[in-house]
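The protein record now logged underneath.
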Amino acid sequence: MNWISLTAINQLEEIKSKSFEKPQIIFKHSTRCSISAMVLNRLEKWENTTDADFYYLDLIAYRIISNTIAEDFNVFHESPQILVIKNGNCIYDESHNAIAIEDILPYTTTSSY
């Protein structure tokens, strides 16, 4: 997995803008949570061959960004959590053990743009 580190709030505007061209995926990871570590491990094993960009947020280090994501995309703050951003909006979000690659894949193509 080739992660793009999400470390600045202004990246959220960039993510929204880029989401009009291709899906943007945000993975919110808690470095203190064993479930989050398990999900990250699952994602790391996946060979990403999609059209989407994948962002990694360490929400312990960047809690304000996590809170801004919840506000901007109208989702509850959870961790671990994955969000799919398309056309400036969150069209899919899931958390904890329900995060599964096979559920994310249908959203990671640009063919429906």
Remarks:
- The mean pLDDT is 91.
- The domain at 3-107 is CATH 3.40.30.10 (Glutaredoxin).
